């Protein structure tokens, strides 16, 4: 606050104006200066039931604290001397850093009114600002962990149902179809065995081939049923099998390209990547209306990249992340969180009508170090 030039229309502060709380027990505070210091004071006092802000003085109409003051319905004036004249004021805090204001306040003496200015005021608002920053940081961390918690709760519950449905579909679409086909062929053989023995032989060969297929299917179902142990998961075979059954189940063509050596990866990274690919593929099947999806896994010396690309309808990533109806949809958030938990990052690129690409990059340097590779 350099000079008292009236550059804006002052909000009139009536003497003794107490808009927010008419509590006699409250300390009535007047603030001079709506810069960083004034903003910090407003923020902290606004939530304190024992403080009533009777007014804030500022000459700069663009000062950062003014918007907040108006939102809080704190009277704003240009001339700080009007604040000194207020009837109901217990404490005046000068955070302008302006020596002219400081000098006026030095000569200001009124019974029951305390004045804080200069270095003391600066120290005070800096402490307050630090506290606000710390609180915001704590809230941010808390929110993150709350959404992580919801993610885990969701996984624990929904994943079981989802997995059961998936296994049932897998058995139905693969194994049961093959067995039914075999049954039909054996019935046919029964009829043909006397009349047309040669045709019967061919049908029997076909039935045998189908039986082989059924055995393979059964093996695959068992493979997919195995719990994914951190210390034993082989990522590439797991993904190969997963993609194979995904393709049969959902009739979405899959491509899988791998480069590099997975033995360099930590078990936890492998399991997290597996889950990420699972979720991305589940989204393709649920939302994308795609008929193709490609998964690329490139394990380099320093960085690992996984890309899942579909040729579906795409979506507006920003809009979806802001959609209040999807607050409890955790798939994409789970992908981002999991990537972060292994020291990497996930990026979702999508445009309506242009398909979707999920890219996960994990540095394979020091960041990924974890105790014994277990969780
Ligand atoms: N590959 C994709 N193609 C088109 N839209 C997608 C794709 N992936 C995600 N979306 C859109 O993004 C939204 C958020 O996805 P997300 O995985 O977070 O939630 P969800 O799949 O709806 O539910 P959840 O995964 O929690 O069961 C989806 O509802 C969908 O609208
Ligand atoms: Mg999803």
Written account of the structure:
It contains ten helices and ten strands. It is an alpha/beta fold. Among the domains are: 27-116, NAD(P)-binding Rossmann-like Domain (Rossmann fold), CATH 3.40.50.720; 229-375, 2-Layer Sandwich (Heat Shock Protein 90), CATH 3.30.565.10. The strands form two sheets. The protein has a five-stranded parallel beta sheet with strand order 3-2-1-4-5, with helices on both faces. A five-stranded mixed beta sheet has the order 6-7-8-10-9, with helices on one face. The protein is rod-shaped, with a radius of gyration of 34 Å. It starts with 26 loop residues before the first strand and ends in a 12-residue tail after the last strand. The protein binds adenosine-5'-triphosphate and magnesium ion.
């Amino acid at each position: 606050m350099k000079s008292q030039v009236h550059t804006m229309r002052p909000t009139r502060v009536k003497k003794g104006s107490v808009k927010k709380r008419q509590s006699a027990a409250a300390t009535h505070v007047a603030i001079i200066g709506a810069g960083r210091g004034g903003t910090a004071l407003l923020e902290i006092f606004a939530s304190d039931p024992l403080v009533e802000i009777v007014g804030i003085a500022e000459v700069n109409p663009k000062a950062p604290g003014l918007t907040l003051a108006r939102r809080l319905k704190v009277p704003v004036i240009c001339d700080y001397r009007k604040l000194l004249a207020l009837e109901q004021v217990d404490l005046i805090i000068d955070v302008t850093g302006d020596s002219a204001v400081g000098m006026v306040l030095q000569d200001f003496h009124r019974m029951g009114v305390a004045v804080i200015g200069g270095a003391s005021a600066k120290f005070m608002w800096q402490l307050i600002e630090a506290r606000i920053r710390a609180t915001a940081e704590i809230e941010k961390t808390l929110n993150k962990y709350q959404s992580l918690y919801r993610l885990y709760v969701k996984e624990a519950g929904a994943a079981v149902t989802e997995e059961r449905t998936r296994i049932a579909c897998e058995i139905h679409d693969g194994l049961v179809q093959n067995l039914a086909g075999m049954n039909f062929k054996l019935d046919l053989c029964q009829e043909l065995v006397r009349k047309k023995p040669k045709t019967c032989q061919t049908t029997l060969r076909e039935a045998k081939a189908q039986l082989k297929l059924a055995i393979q299917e059964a093996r695959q179902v068992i493979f997919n049923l195995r719990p994914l142990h951190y210390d034993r998961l082989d990522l590439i075979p797991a993904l190969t099998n997963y993609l194979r059954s995904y393709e049969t189940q959902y009739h979405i063509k899959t491509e899988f390209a791998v480069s590099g050596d997975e033995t360099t990866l930590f078990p936890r990274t492998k399991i997290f990547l597996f889950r990420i690919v699972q979720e991305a593929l589940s989204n393709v099947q649920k939302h994308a209306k795609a008929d193709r999806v490609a998964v690329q896994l490139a394990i380099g010396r320093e960085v690992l990249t996984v890309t899942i690309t579909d040729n579906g309808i795409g979506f507006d990533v920003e809009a979806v992340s802001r959609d209040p109806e999807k607050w409890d949809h955790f798939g994409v958030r789970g992908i981002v969180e999991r990537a972060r938990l292994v020291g990497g990052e996930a990026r979702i690129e999508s445009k309506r009508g242009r398909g979707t690409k999920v890219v996960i990059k994990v540095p394979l340097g020091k960041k990924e170090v974890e105790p014994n590779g277990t969780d």
